[in-house]
């Protein structure tokens, strides 16, 4: 397995550019470029892998790649000096890699010998296939009712769900369901608008939410957005200037359309983008659901309710 290729593929699968990934880690973009070329530190690799949901299979058990390598070496019955001989590395280098240090080049060399059959572990993602010509109905993921109850408890009853589904457990005064197009429909309402969009079709829904706020169609609105997509222009340049963002500490367990099937734990962190909030509402929600608040970039005092 080519680890460098796997890093690049995982990053691209998350929709991240090298620059966006570098900004999240607060490192120069060149470090990401070099890492994907096999040059850099194991320390940086350990920071990158969870951000791009990269894990390896056919190595050994372990929370990180270095823990997996250490376990794999021990399962082979190799001491550090024996492993050093087989990999043509210094024993101190082996120890450094297994401790989370050293270079990625040394780690790759060790991986090729200790776990030659290693491969990238597929990641099952929660998403909606928005292509209406396909069986999108069979791949829907619904917000768990327990979480919706916390939303209602903090922000009030949901007046509109413009991106809904007939089988969704959400209780809203108005639900826009296909074949009616929520992107084209009017969102005019005085109550809370809740948007759990197709994750494969995020940008148009976020742009529509920005438009609804700008045109004063809505007075309070919450948008469920994967943390990995905070680099979207519609978020960074528009939504972030008029809404605060709450990063959820725990990952949601989505409900499948087939209610008899087990719930589905999101493989990535999620955020709530909130327009028209009051400080009391935000405080109430954060006591109910552990989360971190990211303030808006520019406060629009003419539209904020609190």
Automatic annotation (TrEMBL):
Residue ranges of the TM segments: none
GO molecular function: DNA binding; site-specific DNA-methyltransferase (adenine-specific) activity
The HTH cro/C1-type domain, residue ranges: 7-38
Signal peptide: none
Any Gene Ontology biological process: DNA restriction-modification system
Domain of life: Bacteria
Protein name: HTH cro/C1-type domain-containing protein
């Amino acid at each position: 397995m080519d680890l460098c290729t796997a890093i690049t593929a995982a990053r691209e699968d998350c929709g991240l550019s090298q620059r966006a990934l570098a900004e999240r880690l607060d490192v120069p973009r060149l470090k990401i470029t070099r890492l994907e070329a096999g040059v850099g530190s194991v320390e940086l690799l350990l920071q990158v892998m969870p951000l791009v949901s990269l894990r390896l299979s056919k190595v050994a058990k372990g929370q990180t790649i270095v823990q997996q390598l250490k376990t794999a070496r021990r399962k082979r019955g190799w001491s550090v000096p024996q492993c050093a001989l087989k990999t043509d590395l210094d024993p101190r280098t082996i120890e450094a890699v297994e401790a989370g240090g050293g270079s990625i080049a040394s780690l790759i060399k060790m991986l090729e010998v200790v776990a030659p059959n290693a491969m990238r572990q597929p990641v099952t993602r929660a998403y909606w296939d928005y292509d209406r010509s396909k069986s999108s109905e069979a791949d829907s993921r619904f917000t768990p009712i327990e979480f919706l109850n916390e939303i209602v408890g903090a922000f009030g009853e949901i007046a509109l769900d413009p991106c809904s589904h007939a089988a969704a457990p959400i209780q809203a005064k108005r639900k826009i369901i296909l074949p009616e197009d929520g992107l084209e429909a009017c969102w005019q309402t005085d109550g809370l608008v809740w948007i759990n969009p197709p994750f494969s079709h995020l940008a148009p829904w976020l742009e529509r939410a920005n438009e609804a706020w700008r045109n004063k169609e809505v007075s309070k609105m919450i948008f469920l957005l994967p943390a990995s997509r905070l680099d979207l222009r519609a978020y960074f340049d528009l939504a972030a200037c008029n809404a605060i963002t709450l990063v959820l500490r725990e990952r949601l367990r989505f409900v499948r359309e087939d209610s008899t099937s087990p719930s589905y734990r999101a493989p990535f962190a999620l955020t709530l983008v909130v327009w028209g909030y009051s400080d009391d509402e935000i405080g109430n929600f954060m006591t109910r659901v552990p989360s971190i608040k990211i303030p808006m970039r520019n406060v629009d005092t003419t539209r904020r309710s609190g």
